[in-house]
Amino acid sequence: MSFEQARRALQSAGIDFTDDLALLRGNDKLQQAIIALSNAGIDLSAPIIEREFGFPNAFTALRRNSILIEVVLALEKVGCLNKNSWLGIKLKDSLQREILQVIGQEPKPLPHGSITFTDIEALANAGIYNRPGHEDPLYTIDNNPELRQTCDILRRDYCLSRTAFWNFLVPGNQDFITAIHLLHDTQSLDSSTLRDIRNPKFRHLITTLHRMGALSLESLESIRSEGQKAKRRGKGNQFFHAISILGHLHVNSSCNFQEDDWPSIYGNDRITRQRRKVICLLHKTKSDDSAASLLTVKYWRQVKTKPMFQTAITILNFHDLLSDKTLSKIENEPLSKLVTELQNHSQFSPEIWKAIQSHPKIPELLRAMKATWDAGIRLSFTKIINLCSQPNPIDAVSQILLTDSLNKIATTAKSLKRDAQCTIAHHLMTRVESESGSRLLRSLHDTARIASRPIGLFQSRSRLKLGSDNMPEPFQAAEPSLEALRKLYDVSDPVWKDTITGTPQKGQASQFTTYNVMKDALKTEKSRSDAKTIDLSQQGAEMAGR
Fold it and tell me: Is the dihedral of CA 369, 370, 374, 378 positive or negative?
């Protein structure tokens, strides 16, 4: 029966097969192949000239090629024998064996047209073959539209692979499939990223970047580059981890990403690198009362908007002080700034933290410490702890800086043989030890007045110029501490200049006591053996005209 059909088909095509009649009669598969091609509407008489060794017609190509016969029959069985598939197989001998491996020896029949030759060729090129005892790849594709669409995406991006198909697509690994579609949609899919998403952590990374609106080849390359640098340093990829941590954080808290989330962790500047580090630190550190991470959406939003807060976190972690309690304390911006400044000046320690964490006047304490740094004075750890115990840190540090200034004035005056100036400086030192508030401010002006006493006989205060070499040596010696105090008390330039160069107006109150008044007051004190300690500033107010 099949012989007659094959013979009629060849005769209808005008092919002379007289010399091959016996061959045709004795080869059932050749007969079936001819019938199949004829039924598929393929012109049997058309010459095959597109290849190096051509054939005058389809029968000539089939009669001596058992592999081609098998391929034609296999394609017919899976409903994929047509002009397009015939064109593909007749041109490529190497593809024929691979197609047979894809279809298999006993393929499940499929409806005509449900599988395309493009599908089969893609599977063949990727080495995805029919394996006995396993799922039929063609049947699997035909019954799973999503898998078929995903395979088509991989084919078009030239990265369909045997591993991806059998290990991830066929088992229905949904996050793998999702990652492929996301990468394809952002033109980021290639063989490298396909290999990366075999790792579930990388698949989560892809999803997180997509939710951030940051999925691109550029962002993926940045993450890879950071990873390579970290690997050379023997460390983990903090960029990768920070993104993954934020992804889990927002999923677990049911929060959407904000527009500034990605810009906050993308970059190579110091603040951004530190921010990624802080995310990892907070995620790694557990709460004292539970196994929950310290990282919350609330703290993440503070980290990305408050550089001082994130810096304080790294400092506390370095000193093994990071906990949920300490974290809540440094939400106080002045405290986080104080911690940072102390660390920058190598003056922070667990003992210092214990002293400052609950201080009632953190802003004042910060201003007081800044004054010591401005003056170039390094307090010992003991003195810092003592400063923290004072009810008014501004007063305490003012006494320290005034004492430092007066010491320098006295030392310099002594070397210049200016005994009166030296004596006044020592007298003021005893006075400031018991002063506070506005009286210390008055002593600051008095100290500046003493220090700026002109040295030469023909020098005039009015000609003194702050910041120049013509300022008296005692003033130059004390200037760092005096200037720090001036900033601490926010003394304006005109007022400060008046203290140094001005002359009190008769009948008007002045912010300072003149040098002569202080000198005369000391003489009066010496003349009264039973006199009590004289307050120079009080006498200055009484003798403001001098």
Answer: positive
Lookup: tokens for 223: 């993450």
Tell whether 349 is covered by a domain.
no
Per-residue pLDDT of 451-503, as tens digits, reads 999 876 667 888 888 888 889 999 999 999 999 999 999 999 999 999 999 88
The 3-class SS string of 55-88 reads ECCHHHHHHCCHHHHHHHHHHHHCCCCCHHHHHH
Spatial distance between the Cα atoms of 396 and 304, rounded to a whole number of angstroms: 36
Compute and round to an integer the Cα radius of gyration of the chain.
45
Assess contact for 413 and 474: CB atoms under 8 A.
Answer: yes
Contacts of 85 (CB under 8 A, 6+ apart): 75, 117, 120
d(CA 349, CA 371): 20
For residues 62-86, average pLDDT:
90
Which residue reads 């203290």 in tokens?
A: 499
pLDDT per residue over 85-135, tens digit each? 888 887 777 788 899 999 987 777 888 888 899 999 999 999 999 887 778
| DSSP labels, 116-182 | -HHHHHHHHHHT----TTS--HHHHHHT-HHHHHHHHHHHHTT---HHHIIIIITTT-HHHHHHHHH
% of the chain beyond a pLDDT of 90: 65
Smallest Cα–Cα separation from 371: which of 486, 273, 453?
486
Handedness of CA 135, 141, 143, 148 (dihedral sign): positive
Structural domain for 457, as ranges = 392-546
User: How many other CB atoms sit within 10 Å of the CB of residue 166?
Assistant: 16
Distances (CA, A) of 525 to 362, 384, 426, 519, 520: 42, 37, 14, 10, 9
Q: Does residue 89 fall inside a structural domain?
A: no
Query: How many domains does the chain fold into?
Result: 1
Contact, 295 vs 279, CB < 8 A? yes
Q: pLDDT grade, residue 397 (50/70/90)?
A: very high
Could you tell me if 445 and 512 are in contact, meaning their C-beta atoms sit under 8 angstroms apart?
A: yes
Has residue 470 been placed in a domain? Answer: yes
Which has the higher per-residue pLDDT, 135 or 313?
313
Answer yes or no: is 443 within a domain: yes
Strands (E), 454-528: none
Count of CB atoms within 10 A of residue 380's CB?
9
Q: Are 44 and 13 in contact (CB under 8 A)?
A: yes
